[in-house]
User: Fold this.
Amino acid sequence: MLLFIYILLGPAAWLALCVMSLFARVRMGRLLRSTDTLPAEPPSIAIVVPAKDEAENIRSCVSKLLQQDYPRFELVVVNDRSTDSTGSQLDEMATQIVGGPRLRVIHIESLPEGWLGKSHALHVATRGLTHDYLLFVDSDVNLASDAARKLVALAHARSYDALSALPSLEFAGLADRLLLPVLAVSWGAAFTVSLTNDDSKRHIAAANGQMFLIRRDVYERVGNHQAVRNKIVEDVELMRHLKKSGASVRFMLGHNLGSTKMHDTWPRIFHGWARIFAGTARRSIWPILAVLFFLWVCTMPVFAALWMPTTAWRVASISHLLLIAVFVVRCYTAAGLSIPAAILLTICLPVTIILQSVVLIYAMIVCIRGHVMWRCDRVAG
Assistant:
């Protein structure tokens, strides 16, 4: 009986996770395989970037965006209460442009009560825009020159009202290499984000605000960012509003469209991912508890089972260990790490599980108390 319970909660659970992840990757992979092209008269598009204290990244981000090969676009960048040189750099870049796409810079000095910064910045930036599509891009993202064209081509050809994509990750050190891939996969599994692409599941939707394309008329119909003005994961909540309204939405892998350096220090990983989990869960601890259950009940017992004396136990535990190893190595390689690096990081899995558990426990604390510290601000959800 004990062996049966172990097989059910160990190897069988991991096999199910592997199969579900395979289907999820297929469901979210259309952008990686897309051959759709723009119509003869391409829709107009505004690329909108919120930036707060992004002096280190803003030039690279804006330069990449100005190099987009899309035939008709305007770039709008919002300097949201920055205390560094973000605003002055943007003003300087705007004056240096001669011909080509238009760069418009908006400066925000204060945050109204009841709003969170990013939602307010995007709300201000989109007022008065008349373009067919809006492409929201975070200031820590470097887009490939064909990214806007591929996003709009796919959305237009398939009649998608909204299309969000996950860029590839740039790594700065051990912390982000060790934790970001497994946290991202855990988030995707906990909230079944691939079911965003199932039109029959109107209650399930997710998005990534780093790369988020929306038809402007649909965006305005659901109340724009004013509808999510106080949400700590405004991108996910906006996609939920869109899908519930009947819009056709998709969430896809966009590793070929750009890259981002995301949460590259221990504190940013700790607070950032606690915010993401708590916000996506809408302050419910149950999805987070499910991830913790899987990490400790479905994973850690393998290290004890390997020492059991009978052949049946050994076969079950070795199968369990191989499933874990293959899955975790694949998580790391899918994030862009080499196979040797992925293997080394997989060997560290017990440590990774402990660190990931700390993040998840803090996420539950955020759910209970209702706020998290992010970018030196106390953010309520």
User: Anything to note?
Assistant: The longest helix spans residues 311-334. The mean pLDDT is 93. The two ends are 44 Å apart (CA to CA).
